[in-house]
Amino acid sequence: MADIITLLPDHVANQIAAGEVVQRPASVVKELMENAIDAGATQVQLVVKDAGKTLIQLIDNGCGMSKADAQLSFSRHATSKIKEADDLFSLSTKGFRGEALASIAAIAQVEMRTRRPEDELAIQIRISGGEMEAAEAVTGPVGTTISVKNLFYNIPARRNFLKSDAVEQRHILDEFHRVALAHPKVHFKLISNGNDLFNLPSANLRKRIVGIFGPKTNEKLVPLEEKTEIVCISGFVLKPEYARKSRGEQFFFVNDRFIKSAYLNHAVGMAFEGIVKEGAHPGFFIFLEVDPNAIDINIHPTKTEIKFEDEHAIYAMLRSTIRHSLGQYRVAASLDFDHSLDLNPSYESTKQVPVSPKIEVDRHFNPFSEKEGKAGYSSGKPPKPEVKWESLYSGTAISDPQGFHDPAEFPLEESEELESRLFDQDTVESKQETFQVGAKYIACRIRNGMIMLHQARAHQRILYESYLSRLTMERGGSQQLLFPVKIEYDNKQLTLLEDIREGLEQMGFEFADWHSDGISIQALPAEMEEVQVERVLGQLIDDLDQELPELGYSINDRMARSLAASMAIRTGTILEAEEREQLVHELFACKEPDRAPDGRPVLITLDNKFFDKQFS
Ligand code: ADP
Ligand code: MG
């Protein structure tokens, strides 16, 4: 039998490859917009006709191409963005595969005009069915204009497969939004069938979101900000009350590239757990910056999926950053009774820049750290304040005669400060005004009503955050015991303890001996009493044993929760005025003051309107 294998001609290979890259008009929109961004354009205009089926035109003012580059750009694997395989690990461009223009040219009639700043004339190229028809010098502005006409004109089966104009247009808008959100500094325009749909001048992210989704969106945004070595997180989540049945406004960007990630979605879901109704999807615009070395975006031809090296750490940080921001917002919203109902502030009128007051909270503040030798919790109550709480909330005594910073009127500035003036002296009254109700709740006057705290849960929250920082950052202080305490454990318990030994030492425990039927302890965390230790460790073992290892909860988190629950003051404990006040102020220095570590509410607010209603 004769040999039967032949190499496919280029235009056939390109047509086959095009199937991967170009599924519909929106795929072309994405590739062309990304090329414009990669070319450094500051102005990008997209023109579509008939949902892109007849025409997709992209005009940019980027770097343009030389004549040779322009001709080469339509060949497969022609790219200026990587030179060798190693470059794949330090990508800073959207494109790198060198496939888009070749694929598009294989299945549409393409015209390109491009000019570099240093050239006098532009070059114009026409390609049909993958064949270059003409290349001529013409006059034209710096930048590149590409027109893609009659998509799939040579593959009727694919053309027939396209959905209605409405559906295809929806896909185009999605791609347009994604690129426009990822690059707020770039001016984008979209014209469809002769109508101006979007005109988005260079802006900050908040303005860009508002430009796309409408002025009402401004009021819904809660800013995020967290910087760590592994990842920087920024952007916004929508307030929980705007969560919707459908997955509407959900955007992840990694290094300014839109991506989809079920895993990160889950992290957001966990952050909103218990705050939104079951089945409702919170909205978000989340930007992650990571070292390009630590990601692999090469696993899907349309590049919306991504692999992270530190997936688990990013999950945990994302979740806690969102919870932190939501916590601050929720407390702000519940304390802010004068909150203006004008949901639609006019930005033009807010010319004066509001001062964003700072709360300088010492996150590592450990209420027990200065205690030496003697256990401080003899009565099961919080110890005396070591830090004057006033000093935790500095910079608040100026400039805002309202005494309150309205979260709805955050300035439209690029750096979104998370700090807000929640706890200035006007808000939680400095001199006393707290009392205990039923040895269970603490009532506390605020400017326009009162808050009720659940004392046990409030203390759990305080301890939980302090323990967590001890477990993950600074080792806690210890007190040596005169005689080691011996506790007996069975094999299973000992294995569990062994797993958390390091954490326990970090908490301030020191072990003299670790034998086959138990342990002996020679030093305890400074605030723990000898009589408590057996109960606390027993509870910890039970908790760790019983709790299913939940996704996203680290062992440190679970330890901190269990220990906080064991060590916190209980319902029924009578507290002195000073202790009550300290509890209130330590609570408000927490990252998430409104929830106990297990998610149950810590405080409720009763404003004057509430009282008025009761008395009406
Ligand atoms: P990739 O973006 O993966 O490199 P493309 O097929 O999308 O592959 O583009 C091929 C090359 O053509 C790019 O690497 C770039 O050098 C050039 N190019 C494409 N579009 C533009 C543009 N709008 N402005 C300047 N150069 C462009
Ligand atoms: Mg490209």
From TrEMBL:
<dbReference type="InterPro" id="IPR042120">
    <property type="entry name" value="MutL_C_dimsub"/>
</dbReference>
<dbReference type="GO" id="GO:0032300">
    <property type="term" value="C:mismatch repair complex"/>
</dbReference>
<protein>
    <recommendedName>
        <fullName>DNA mismatch repair protein MutL</fullName>
    </recommendedName>
</protein>
<keyword id="KW-0227">DNA damage</keyword>
<comment type="similarity">
    <text>Belongs to the DNA mismatch repair MutL/HexB family.</text>
</comment>
<dbReference type="Pfam" id="PF01119">
    <property type="entry name" value="DNA_mis_repair"/>
</dbReference>
<comment type="function">
    <text>This protein is involved in the repair of mismatches in DNA. It is required for dam-dependent methyl-directed DNA mismatch repair. May act as a 'molecular matchmaker', a protein that promotes the formation of a stable complex between two or more DNA-binding proteins in an ATP-dependent manner without itself being part of a final effector complex.</text>
</comment>
<dbReference type="Pfam" id="PF13589">
    <property type="entry name" value="HATPase_c_3"/>
</dbReference>
<dbReference type="Pfam" id="PF08676">
    <property type="entry name" value="MutL_C"/>
</dbReference>
<feature type="domain" description="MutL C-terminal dimerisation">
    <location>
        <begin position="433"/>
        <end position="575"/>
    </location>
</feature>
<dbReference type="GO" id="GO:0030983">
    <property type="term" value="F:mismatched DNA binding"/>
</dbReference>
<dbReference type="InterPro" id="IPR037198">
    <property type="entry name" value="MutL_C_sf"/>
</dbReference>
<dbReference type="InterPro" id="IPR042121">
    <property type="entry name" value="MutL_C_regsub"/>
</dbReference>
<dbReference type="InterPro" id="IPR014762">
    <property type="entry name" value="DNA_mismatch_repair_CS"/>
</dbReference>
<dbReference type="GO" id="GO:0005524">
    <property type="term" value="F:ATP binding"/>
</dbReference>
<dbReference type="InterPro" id="IPR020667">
    <property type="entry name" value="DNA_mismatch_repair_MutL"/>
</dbReference>
<dbReference type="InterPro" id="IPR014790">
    <property type="entry name" value="MutL_C"/>
</dbReference>
<dbReference type="GO" id="GO:0006298">
    <property type="term" value="P:mismatch repair"/>
</dbReference>
<dbReference type="InterPro" id="IPR013507">
    <property type="entry name" value="DNA_mismatch_S5_2-like"/>
</dbReference>
<dbReference type="InterPro" id="IPR014721">
    <property type="entry name" value="Ribsml_uS5_D2-typ_fold_subgr"/>
</dbReference>
<dbReference type="InterPro" id="IPR036890">
    <property type="entry name" value="HATPase_C_sf"/>
</dbReference>
<dbReference type="InterPro" id="IPR020568">
    <property type="entry name" value="Ribosomal_Su5_D2-typ_SF"/>
</dbReference>
<dbReference type="InterPro" id="IPR038973">
    <property type="entry name" value="MutL/Mlh/Pms-like"/>
</dbReference>
<dbReference type="GO" id="GO:0016887">
    <property type="term" value="F:ATP hydrolysis activity"/>
</dbReference>
<feature type="domain" description="DNA mismatch repair protein S5">
    <location>
        <begin position="209"/>
        <end position="327"/>
    </location>
</feature>
<keyword id="KW-0234">DNA repair</keyword>
<dbReference type="GO" id="GO:0140664">
    <property type="term" value="F:ATP-dependent DNA damage sensor activity"/>
</dbReference>
<dbReference type="InterPro" id="IPR002099">
    <property type="entry name" value="MutL/Mlh/PMS"/>
</dbReference>
